[in-house]
Model the fold of this input.
Amino acid sequence: MNNHLIIFDTTLRDGEQSPGASMTGEEKVRIAKMLEKMRVDIIEAGFPAASPGDFAAVKTVAEVVTDSTVCALARAAKGDIERAGEAIKPARSGRVHTFIATSPVHMQEKLRMSPEEVLERAVWAVKESRRYCDDVEFSPEDAGRSETDFLCRIIEAVIKAGARTVNIPDTVGYNVPQQFGGLIKQLMERVPNADKAVFSVHCHNDLGLAVANSLAAVMAGARQVECTINGLGERAGNASLEEIVMAVRTRQDVFSCDTRIDTTQIVPMSRLVSNITGFLVQPNKAIVGANAFAHEAGIHQDGVLKKRETYEIMRAEDVGWSANRMVLGKHSGRSAFRQRLSELGIEFKAEEQLNSAFARFKDLADKKHEIFDEDLQALVTEEGLEHTNEHLRLIALRVCSQTGETPHAAVTLAVNGEERRADAPGSGPVDAAYKAIDSIVQSDSQLQLYSVSNITSGTDSQGEVTVRLERSGRIVNGHGADTDIVIASAKAYLNALNKLVSREERTHPQLGQPI
Done:
């Protein structure tokens, strides 16, 4: 049995389908480079047919990534496949991933196609995809609720047509481990040409079983797992890459395979994705949560001090929890700053971008005694936000908040270059600041989420704020960071408002038909 478990990361595609998680092309490239550094086998960079912006992002990732295969998703439609093929053309190693639904409810209610029509379209899609590259993956969408006999027929047909990988998605997270593992085993035994393709799985987490279902499939013979960083994804998310990788690596007594992932990059990768998307990692999240290796109970502390293995089944250092403090301050030079960013996988296209980021670093160093890698990630994200969608820009903010008095805020914004001022009372300083901004912008949007977290420890830590706005069915996330939490809140709010008013903002990928 093949002992290499292929890791297929779909953070940039399926992960981006989380409402408000859309990434810019530059952010996608940053994540892709980090995934490559982590030695991910396949990076699904996006859904090129979704929009010109997504096409350009996939193409750029294909141009810069050399050590991982770059994959593009396409429905079983000529236009989709053509766009996917064109987007991955620059890749050193490219793949087209095409799909069509196979469950009765999807075929009848969504596609309005008969099983025979679906089978015929699937075979055509694989052959059409082979015109653009030899590496073609096929997915029967909603396979977890499809009839096994029909799955066997369609899988045999697409392998014969040239599919090298067959992916079995549990699209709605309906399956349980024993059932899903059994399905994979059945398919591999019953499909006559199953040995001619790699069997893959793509599990969603609606019942909290995505990782368990994926691991059950691996034990049944699947040799590719599709997953995302931090389990990011639509609805309840996808199988978590870090949990899949570390479960297989830690339990080699159970699994007859392993990945090639550099696990020391897991925590930095998790932080980067969280920072860019604004989706925070819960403290008790396995592997990458702040409490994943914390021990408070006295008996646990005593045991770990005597021998780590008493309460820890893996080393924190193995997943990247080793101290990564950056020993730089306001007297540090540009070369040291550039070197540390390079080590974090961050590079600037132009010298002026580096200069601007360095100036921000100096300002931050005046406020904080110690600078951490998390601060740098936030700083670079802020730099990117500053130079995109600049319809609205914060010039000045003054707030007054004291016991027994109504908080008040005065704000000055640049609106398309023109300065405007407003002030407003509120139930708190953030509420007052937002009301003052609203009196200028009049965006008619609804605030759905306001979240605050500290980027590092200490009272001088930067506060990181994420807001989610909705207007006319469109959802966007805004992100801001500052040592002053009220200013961070204003930055996040303006970032989200800029996304709402920007005509360049890409169509959300959920408008497609993701698996």
Q: What stands out?
A: The first helix runs from residue 25 to 37. Residues 292-322 form one domain. The longest strand covers residues 392-400.
